């Protein structure tokens, strides 16, 4: 059969709406996940057993469970307690928790890679620990881990296709809906894959731009 370009063109507005939902979820997931990952990284570096041990257990638990199962756990756990959370919010929460577990180790490794002499020098100059962390350590860590965080965002964006199982109308879900009525899976799924590729290329280019802008902290 001939490739149906007309179907792809007519479906493009709907696919773009789904892509926007996917991008929103991915950005929110990476933002909340980074904040949670930063907190978990501090727990890992705290040298306090009551913080370090539970954090390690949580990270290993999340990293050891398939992401699709995590989505189901988040989505159905709250409803079992009588709390209804929209599918979009459940998807963002699951994505945030998932990426936080991976980012915690990335951030921890980044912080440990900074020479301790910098912190000691800042203390000798009377700089507080908070200022040392926010003005000296974190900017350098951000530059060091930016490639790893970019890879994590790309992975998260691709994994976001799994939230369609809880009826989030993302790019994958829209593609499935169009295929169910058009019976043309080849054309639609090719268009879906190209949109995912385009979003990932945008993320990669944005990361390269940030690397150039933050080169001063290297």
Structural summary, described in words:
Helix content is 82%, strand content 0%. The chain is mainly α. It has a single domain (5-217), classed as MetI-like (MetI-like fold). Helix 1 (5-45) crosses helix 8, helix 2 (49-64) packs across helix 4 and helix 6 (129-159) runs antiparallel to helix 8. The chain starts with a helix and ends in a 5-residue tail after the last helix.
Could you name the key traits of this structure?
single chain; mainly alpha; 218 residues; 82% helix; MetI-like fold
Uncertain segments of ≥5 residues (pLDDT<50)? Answer: none
- Name given to the CATH homologous superfamily: MetI-like
CATH topological fold name: MetI-like fold
Mean pLDDT: 90
Shape: flat
For the termini, the CA-CA separation is 55 Å
User: What percent of the residues sit in helical stretches (DSSP H or I)?
Assistant: over 70%
Number of helices: 8
Overall number of domains: 1
- Which range does the strand content fall in? under 5%
> What is the CATH class designation?
Mainly Alpha
Q: Count every beta strand, where a strand is a DSSP E run of 2 or more residues.
A: 0
């Amino acid at each position: 059969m001939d490739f149906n370009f007309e179907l792809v063109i007519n479906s493009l507005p709907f696919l773009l709406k789904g892509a926007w939902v996917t991008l929103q979820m991915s950005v929110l997931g990476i933002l909340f996940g980074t904040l949670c990952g930063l907190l978990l990284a501090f727990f890992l570096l705290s040298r306090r057993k009551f913080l370090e041990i539970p954090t390690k257990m949580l990270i290993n638990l999340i990293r050891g469970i398939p992401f699709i199962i995590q989505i189901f756990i988040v989505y159905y756990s709250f409803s079992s307690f009588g709390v209804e959370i929209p599918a979009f919010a459940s998807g963002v929460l699951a994505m945030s928790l998932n990426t936080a577990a991976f980012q915690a180790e990335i951030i921890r490794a980044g912080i440990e890679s900074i020479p301790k002499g910098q912190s000691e020098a800042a203390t000798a100059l009377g700089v507080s620990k908070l200022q040392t962390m926010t003005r000296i350590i974190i900017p350098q860590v951000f530059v060091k881990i930016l490639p790893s965080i970019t890879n994590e965002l790309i992975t998260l964006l691709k994994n976001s296709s799994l939230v369609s199982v809880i009826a989030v109308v993302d790019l994958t879900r829209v593609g499935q809906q169009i295929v169910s009525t058009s019976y043309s899976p080849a054309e639609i799924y090719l268009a879906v894959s190209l949109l995912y590729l385009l979003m990932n290329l945008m993320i990669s280019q944005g990361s390269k731009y940030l690397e150039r802008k933050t080169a001063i902290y290297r």
